[in-house]
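Support request, priority: normal
Reporter: lab tech (M.K.)
Component: structure prediction queue

Hi team, I submitted a job for 2-oxoglutarate (2OG) and Fe(II)-dependent oxygenase superfamily protein from Morus notabilis yesterday, and the status page still shows it as pending. I've pasted the exact input below so you can check whether something in the sequence is tripping the parser. The sequence length should be 495 residues. Please let me know if I need to resubmit or if it's stuck on your end.
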Amino acid sequence: MAGSGLPSLGRVKLTDLAPAEGLPSDSYKLSVSTLTQSLAQYSAAIIQFPMSDGALLRAALDSARLYFQQKASYPSTDMINNNDPRDWCKTSGYYADSQLWQETYDYRPGLTPSESNNTMEFPPAGLPDIFALLGKAARDILDAISFFLNLRSSPFSEILDNVPLRTREVSSSVLSVCCHARPSFQGAQHHNFATQEDGQLVMFSDHEHQVDKSLISLVKSDKAGLHIKDFQGRWVLVDEDLGPQEAIVYPGLALYQATAGYVNPALHRTEISNLQSNLFGRSSLAFKLMPKSMTSLSCSEMRAAGHGVEAQFQLPVPVDDFMQRSHPTDQLFNRLNVQNFNFNATQDGSMKPLVRRRKNDSRTKPLPPSKRLRLEAQRVLKERVQDIADKKGIKLRFCNLKECENHIHTLDSPCASIRMEIGWPPGVPFVHPHDLPNKAKIGFLEAYEPGWTATHHDMELSLTEPGQPSQHPANCNFHPASTSYLLHYHKCLGM
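Reply from support: The job had stalled in the queue. We restarted it manually and it finished. Here are the results:
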């Protein structure tokens, strides 16, 4: 990355990141490259909103200052944040953290904040509009990262909130209106200070750093103070030179988990010691795009795109468990060794992803043909077969392989009606594609994936045992429009 990296945080126009039908435009490809390169180098990027949105952001920050200024100096006991991880998707309304010298008002659509002492409280103005603005931006940014990783369109839609929310649904994503170091807030008499490398006395939250458990976080503040650790381990002040319509974006732990570690979460901390003489403190808007609690973080999309997935990411993780679990960052990953998306400049000046991996790692080797076949069969099960079953209202309950070898020869077997209704290929046991023999997997794919064909040489290659030499197929038939094109392309090359 040396010599070809960005000299500072990348700036990207939000309008250039908006996805559109058809082939990607040059501005879209350039914006995606700038965004992902900035995330790789600095774990953050600057997003430029349209000028009209800048006025809305500025008005929201002004409203935040006024809201916190009228708050009492000593918050009541029930307004003190207890940091209970079980409340990760239930926070709403005002609370204070005396240790961090921070006050927060959480806006979560679908959840009405409880009023203390039966008093009417007026929240900061414009929260629904800001929530919609930042939420749409976060989804566009997430799709841009997915495009760069060669994932299918909107691969994380299953774990995100509905747009709009359905009746009685509560948003998992949250908009936090924050205020740091308000002089009239006297709940932090015993705060600690840390010394920066240059000798200046500064105060940082949590003494070290924080990491969001979100997919994507967007932060807009009225004063500089947000530090994020870059790829080389240096703390960078990322919001020092922001325009009125600009905000900081950085990835969180949930995206790290969902991309099998290819996108590192940002380690951040907030400097507030230089705000002692400021009348209002530091106000900020922080939107966190969160996964739904009743879903799981899975790396199936990464496997389907051909990315290597380490053992720690193989099994899906329930979101609620993930959010309540502690994630020590010193054990979570080593920032200088962990796999990360990197960049390689081509002759035409465009940027192409280059995966950074550890040396002598088994993931540097191409996937064996049998494993590629298994992953392709699992993808088709998820995208095609499950869709057919859902439309027909059928719950898929697969058989045991040995038992079903007899089922396929009888008309009154337990799975006969299901096989007939969803068009299960004749002669293939009604078993999860992961457990099918390789020849049966090929029959399964030929039945459900239009254009997927396998020649005799393809079959021999798929059944080659590890360690045995394989023959390059002299003729490889595939349909360019098929979603299996990449798999057959690799087979033709003998990869």
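Residues 305 and 341 are 14 Å apart (CA to CA). The longest strand covers residues 282-289. Let us know if anything else looks off. Ticket resolved.
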